[in-house]
Amino acid sequence: MAVHVCLICSSVVGAGRRLRGELRSRAMSSSTNSTVLAESVATGSSGDVELLPFVNDKHGGVIVEMTAPMDPQLFSASLKASLSKWREQGIRGVWIKLSISLANLIQYAVEEGFWYHHAEETYLMLAYWLPATTHTLPVNATHRVGVGAFVMNDKREVLAVQEKSGVLRGLGVWKFPTGVVEPGEDINLGAVREVKEETGIDTEFVEVLAFRQSHKAFFDKSDLFFVCILRPLSFDITKQDSEIEAAQWMPVEEFAAQPFVQKHELVKYILEVGLAKVDKDYAGFSPILIKSAFTDKKSFFYMNRRDLDKASESSSTQKKTEKPLFMEKL
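Structure for Nudix hydrolase domain-containing protein, as requested:
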């Protein structure tokens, strides 16, 4: 859906380019009147044009959210007046959130110097920096988050799937269930959901075993991929027909013997850390629900709780004058 928004934006930009000469001529011919109008509105000496509705953000900027239809000429005049007023007040960053239904207003904001910050399914966000300095506005989200699930039963069989689409389509390769975490979804819940959707297996999240960061993965965005181990709570497979070609419990030795696993280092390491957790003393990161000093919303903090508890017990008996263990290795 975001692609459709971008296409709309592109068509508007294209139209803006075709009309750029006309717009600039109109802007030049009316620059004096526009400036006078903006200044008069900003100082309250004219009631003809109102400032755009806005709220202050937490960083010395303002946010304008446009949802109701507005005449483009009136929007342009209001925007000029608002920018003039905000510049006087020392406002720095200006954000305009335009509903997709108001795409016809984009060109007027762009003509004032706004740039595209990001687009979502139902809106486009434009940004502008008022001071004559390099802007410090945060960039758009840089990463997407993926999860891979290592699930093993008591028979030492791992849950494996074959995909209907993507680069592995039709190759007969068995892989671990994977997917992308949805907006607002926690990593642990995303892993449980993906396994359920692809295989019908109910699971209990145990730990994050490892993670990988890669770049230029999806529309030039970076990617964080979290390897999770889950405990199966059910065992009868019901595969997802739309995305999964096949799903089964596969002996771990058979899974590991696949040429694909031997060549693909990521899958090889997922298998290695999964077995290290099951058979050895490997400790991953478990989610701890924590509070924030800035909001009432809670979040998950992932940490090696087991070793932290051991360290806490050890430190309680260790003399304060002793050199910390990690320093001894430096």
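The longest strand covers residues 203-218.
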